[in-house]
Amino acid sequence: MASLNDITPGTWNLDTDHSEIGFTARHLVVTKVNGLFDDFSVVAEVPENHKDATLEFTVQTASVNTRNADRDGHLKSADFFDVEKYPTMTFKVTKIDDDTITGDLTIKDVTKPVTFDYDFNGTSDDPWGALRAGFEARGEINRKDFGLSFDAAAPGGNALVSDKIKLNLDLEFVKA
Prior knowledge:
Blueprint: E1 10-14, E2 20-27, E3 31-37, E4 40-46, E5 54-60, E6 64-65, H1 69-76, E7 88-96, E8 100-107, E9 110-125, E10 131-142, E11 164-175
Antiparallel strand pairs: 1-4, 1-11, 2-3, 2-11, 3-6, 4-5, 5-7, 7-8, 8-9, 9-10, 10-11
């Protein structure tokens, strides 16, 4: 099993071509809608004590992509991300444990602590001589805690969009 101790200290750059930051919401309680962000960056610095690593994410909110232009337009509006006023959301790690990572998530200038469960998938040399490392992380937020307050009910009373949003990260880093 891979251990964080397998990571070589130093700067690790995100390989965005092999990474994804996504989310899942419920629509009318009966189905899931998945989305992702097409434009994001992550900076990681790993010291000798791996639990003191620093990780900072920046996501361009206008890059939201649910494969539906109308829905994406609504998510970009003031009902949700308000991308004109709040073009980014950020996550800054504050604590790393053996299977969780905690940090401050900021959306629409509201900052709240969020904890993700994560798996470290190990490291591998690539064919071009670089060292790579992979992670998967899963967390959940209440969107209304961050000012994403659009609320509408269907005739039967079910919420149009769930308050709870699942966050999913698949990240591949390259040692600088």
